Amino acid sequence: MGGYMMHPWVRRHSRNSRIHFLGVHSEKDLCGHCGLDFFACPGHFGHIEFSKPVFNPLFFDLLFKVSVAFPLIVFASS
Fold this sequence. Notes:
Keywords: DNA-directed RNA polymerase, Nucleotidyltransferase, Transcription, Transferase. This is DNA-directed RNA polymerase. The model has no long low-confidence stretch (mean pLDDT about 70). About 20% of the residues lie in helices and about 0% in strands. It has helices spanning about 10-15, 60-70. By secondary structure, the protein is mostly helical. The longest helix has 10 residues, at about 60-70.
């Protein structure tokens, strides 16, 4: 592995040093996930665990429209 993956901070903060499974980071390496080279590997999605919920602000408008169209609280008539 080369490039920024060799930096000690990245190694120390990557979970079990498995960040190399996200794809190839230099032309000399092979992907740890699919085994393809730098030009053939499509890259792979990762998973990050946050301690608190994180919301994408680009979806706030859509979320508001959906919540108005389909309210979560339905009042029952007596």
